[in-house]
Amino acid sequence: MRFEGLTIRDSGAQTLISLEEAKAQLNILDQYDDAKISACAEAAAAFCESFLWRSFRPQTVEASYSPDGSGYAELMRADFDALVGVSYYDAAGTLQTIPADLILVDASLFVPRAYFAEPKTSADIFAPIKISYKTKQPDCVPAQVKQAALIATAQFYDDRDAPDMTAVENILRPLATRHFL
């Protein structure tokens, strides 16, 4: 199935970098800007996740797909944890669900896949198949992702009006390229 879009329905707390790590990166010793620094760290983690198409915290995700005859859907933002459900709009535009016992998920792949018979849908409905699933926090986060998040936090904090994310993107790009190869 052709991936069309992704919506994050629920997200766990940001654990990529701690407030203490962010304050050390910024050379800040007091607690007066803790709320702002925490917000910058959250934005930095979200930036890294979006750039890499990978979640570094538990999330509930709804991905939208259009049938293409392949018989499977790639579940982005792995580490896959559990399938919540699959629903689709049939040719009449009525919402239907596919029972969980008819869906096989191969979580051993770098990008997990859900296999099931593609339902008949209307060509008039954009991305009629919705797959909801949960991700888990990965066992290990690469050091360069953590460093990129710290640099992004500093950019969001220091350059509030127009942060330059070039350095962060340069650190993350090799990881993103590896993912798509």
Q: Would you mind describing this structure in some detail?
A:
- With 181 residues, the chain is an alpha+beta fold.
- Helix content is 32%, strand content 27%.
- It has 4 helices and 8 strands; from the N terminus they run E-H-H-E-E-E-E-E-E-E-H-H.
- The chain has helices spanning 19-26, 34-52, 143-158, 166-180; strands at residues 2-11, 59-66, 72-74, 80-89, 95-98, 104-106, 113-115, 129-135.
- Helix 1 packs across helix 3 (143-158) and helix 3 packs antiparallel against helix 4.
- The longest helix is centred in the N-terminal third of the chain and has 19 residues, at 34-52.
- It starts with a strand and ends with a helix.
- The model has no long low-confidence stretch (mean pLDDT 88).
Short synopsis of the structure:
Helices cover 32% and strands 27% of the residues. With 181 residues, the chain is an alpha+beta fold.
Salient structural properties:
single chain, 3-stranded antiparallel sheet, alpha+beta, 4 helices, elongated, 5-stranded antiparallel sheet, 32% helix, 8 strands, 181 residues
Outline the secondary-structure elements:
Blueprint: E1 2-11, H1 19-26, H2 34-52, E2 59-66, E3 72-74, E4 80-89, E5 95-98, E6 104-106, E7 113-115, E8 129-135, H3 143-158, H4 166-180
Antiparallel strand pairs: 1-2, 2-8, 3-7, 4-5, 4-8, 6-7
Helix pairs in contact: 1-3, 2-3, 3-4
Helix amount: 25-40%
User: Shape from CA axes?
Assistant: elongated
Strand order of the largest sheet: 1-2-8-4-5
Total DSSP E strands: 8
What number is the mean pLDDT?
Answer: 88
Radius of gyration: 19 Å
Query: Main beta sheet: strand number and arrangement?
Result: 5 strands, antiparallel
Strand content: 25-35%
Report the order of strands and helices. EHHEEEEEEEHH
Termini Cα gap: 19 Å
Low-confidence stretches: none
Category by helix and strand content:
alpha+beta
How many DSSP H or I helices?
4
